[in-house]
Amino acid sequence: xxxxxxxxxxxxxxxxxxxxxxxxxxxxxxxxxxxxxxxxxxxxxxxxxxxxxxxxxxxxxxxxxxxxxxxxxxxxxxxxxxxxxxxxxxxxxxxxxxxxxxxxxxxxxxxxxxxxxxxxxxxxxxxxxxxxxxxxxxxxxxxxxxxxxxxxxxxxxxxxxxxxxxxxxxxxxxxxxxxxxxxxxxxxxxxxxxxxxxxxxxxxxxxxxxxxxxxxxxxxxxxxxxxxxxxxxxxxxxxxxxxxxxxxxxxxxxxxxxxxxxxxxxxxxxxxxxxxxxxxxxxxxxxxxxxxxxxxxxxxxxxxxxxxxx
Length: 310
Fold this sequence. Notes:
This protein has helices at residues 35-44, 46-59, 145-148, 173-177, 224-232, 288-293, and strands at 2-6, 10-15, 19-22, 62-64, 70-71, 80-83, 101-103, 109-110, 115-117, 125-136, 152-164, 183-191, 202-207, 210-216, 242-244, 260-265, 270-276, 282-283, 302-304. It is α+β, with helices and mostly antiparallel strands and 310 residues long. The chain folds into two domains: 2-71, no CATH class; 80-304, Fumarylacetoacetate hydrolase, domain 2 (Alpha-Beta Complex). The strands form three sheets. Strands 1, 2, 3, 4, 5, 6, 7, 8, 10, 11, 12 and 15 form a twelve-stranded mixed sheet that branches. The protein has a five-stranded mixed sheet with strand order 9-17-16-13-14, with no helix packed on it. Strands 18-19 form a two-stranded antiparallel ribbon. It is globular, with a radius of gyration of 19 Å.
């Protein structure tokens, strides 16, 4: 099942490739003050509501999504936990980096068709990391890796927006990762029963139609079960929380004003959004791998606009 919010946050189930059915009435009795409460409440009670949703989706009517606004499927998750340096970079790393993660603010969430806004701040480059995110389905506290997959509700596309090179260097991740609009997600959540093996999913990101990142989740340094185990031993994960599983950094590239970004995680649909920079800063169109081939271990330098190095 693919769950999404449409227009004024009407809950819908996908019907085919480009149609959906409004199932809001089937979940109206879930206590909620807004769409965030509704979807989190549904996830926590999903087994009790699955049959109702399937019946409502089958009864229809289906409508074409064209012309409708698709909203973020998780408007305000309680936690957004992002795994850091969690890929073997196409097998080029000699050994996995130590398992690590950081938090991202829930206010960073945006949905399909929205714009990632680059803030007026000194940063060496702005990037967006293509990721597959896990949506937690039931409370996870100190779970074992062997039981971790039972705590998953589903999967979705996730972008980890980053402002690199912020100062002071001793205060990096909060400034770099938690900016408003720095977490595009969607277009829907795919329930876990629709994905046979989440450790074998292709991930492709394009910038203005050019493929920049293309990798597979089988290159993860620490698999999904281990990530849930590790995070849940630090703090409890609740239904509707997001665990983003990391990216392959070799294709990271500068995000600039007017860029049109697409992210497609296999079986999770395609997330499309734009980038907006009122300062219209510029960088060369180079990936991390392009720079490495030139003998550099830093992202491509800024070439124009405010904060350009002298």
